[in-house]
Amino acid sequence: MADVSTETYDVIIAGAGPAGVAVAARLAQKGRAKNILVLDRYHFPRDKPCGGALTGHVGPAMDALGLSLRVEHVPCPDAVVRCGSFERRVEMGQNVDVIRRLDFDADLVAQARERGIRVIEGEGLTSYEVQGDCVLVHTSEKRTLRAKVLVGADGAASRVRKQILCNAKATPHRLFVAELNVPAPEGLATSMVYDFTLMKRGLCGYVWLFPAPGGRLNVGLMHYPNPSKNLSGRELTELLREGLAPYGVELPGKCAKGWPVWGYHPNAKISESRVLTVGDAAGIDGLTGEGIAVAMEQAVVAGDEIHLALDNHDFEFSGYRKSIRRATVGRELALDRWLAKLLYGTKRWRDWLALVLLDEKVLDMYARRVDGTEVLADQRLGLYGALCKHSIVRGRRLRRLAEHLAEWRPLGRSGS
Prior knowledge:
This protein has 3 domains: 3-72 and 99-170 and 263-332, FAD/NAD(P)-binding domain; 173-261, D-Amino Acid Oxidase, Chain A, domain 2 (2-Layer Sandwich), CATH 3.30.9; 346-406, no CATH class. Helix content is 35%, strand content 26%. It has 11 helices and 16 strands. The chain has helices at 18-29, 58-65, 101-114, 159-164, 233-244, 292-312, 320-326, 328-344, 349-358, 360-371, 380-406, and strands at 3-14, 36-40, 53-54, 74-83, 86-98, 118-121, 125-131, 134-139, 143-152, 173-180, 191-195, 205-212, 216-223, 257-261, 271-272, 275-277.
């Protein structure tokens, strides 16, 4: 039986990744650092499969949280978008920095400690119970701690999320990532690559190649949960290998790590009395698979909600879901969820891919979304105009897309 500790905190945060540290940093700004405990089952630095791109909203969020980017990073001033023989280089309004999560997360933990926040490594949450005026947090060290508020920032495999949702079943997005000790392909040393070619082979998503610090290359793919294209881990790994081959990049052995993640849904339950979730536990960007910017933007909202709850002694968090939804991050996530369903979740993917790739204004708008210089959710008039234009030139664009895809052949196979 777990020992019931006398330790009591205002807030216990499960998870010391970007989401957890960001919530702690926000509360520290409110003068609550001494009453926060952050738990993580791993010891830092620890590996975390991730593309590592700090998209444009990360900078403002980190500024708002009083955090700094102190680790080595590769500034990327542009992105290359490809599909078959189609290629377009899109200039970013501001650089997107690519980091290694191994270094980035460890430094965020260090910054939390510099602010007087207690972080315990090697001890994670296993379960919790809401009892009257507190939450009892059970840990992997057979301890039971008390808190007024529990924050589930424990990632895609969040135990807090599962308990809030009563283990409800859902189909996840799937990400496969590898960090290779090889340089970026020629001409792409400071460019992010997004390649949609493998949608022809059943991938509901894209392959990426990002230049990483230390002369490394971060590669991976995202696969959307389309019931009609339920690919196995082995099939996805082989697709990643095929997608990298045209760049002269070899994927060795079993180096790619795969894991499930959950897309954000504006109506999903992300809190209950005295408990809320943030970051991957609350849902990633369904279109891109992005999680770091989402986590930090959500953390600002979550930290403010917790601070208010502690002041007012009202811990229901009944308005938290709406607060996230109304914030810029929630509006962007809701739009991306809709776009992802159109692009990855329907049989008409060629139609929507032709719009995204072959309408220069649409691609530019999304580039501004990625670099943080615009809020795509505020560009609905422009998106509507693009849809109207697409209805007129749709046939021509579909023929062009077919031509681009026809010029690509997977290794050892004929085109389809």
